[in-house]
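Q: Could you fold this chain for me?
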Amino acid sequence: MTGVLVIEDDDRIRLALLLALEDEGYTVRGAATAEEGLRMQRRDPADNVLVDLMLPGLDGFECIRQLRRDDDVPIVVVSARDDTHDIVAALEAGADDYVVKPVAVKELSARLRALRRRTRGAAPPVPVFTCGELEISPDAGEVRRAGRTVPVTRTEFRLLCELAEHAGRVLSRQQLLQRVWGYDTGDERLVDVHVGRLRQKIEDDPGNPRHLVTLRGLGYKLHR
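A: Sure. Below is the predicted structure, expressed as structure tokens.
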């Protein structure tokens, strides 16, 4: 049975999440502070962690950073803060997804299942993709640009592999949500944020990209 750790300081919300996720078939534990949650995860790791951002003591961003330093557990932010800057900061700290309160538990449960499938994943394809000066090696889990290694997160790497596998073709945001995140529906800002972060790493001029381009109203394309 899949275990979920909920780190949420609001007693009412934490209890509601615990009960609702138990009804969905999860084994659930709760923590009211980041410090407590970190101790629980280090002592008895859960399969997924939900983190609120506005926590007493260590805030959610630092909690995510420390969780990510310890292991590769899927982390979902559950927060009332829906500003794009908060989403970017949480993803950069190491979160895998971001859900805005109030939470639809069925949707949250589906996202947790998708994250677990994505984390376990099937073996990546063998070919090395070459797009101009970019070289993406799925087997090695590496991205190189002009011969130099580009550090990318797990999700950025999966997104880049998906675009590289379909280089020269436009993929919509919804297609990318389905193929990279495993979501039938979701917040398209997840795609936009990750594309923006990739551009910072693979483009000479992220504001005028040559490799990873936007087709307005259609989606994104990686040039061959």
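A (continued): The mean pLDDT is 89.
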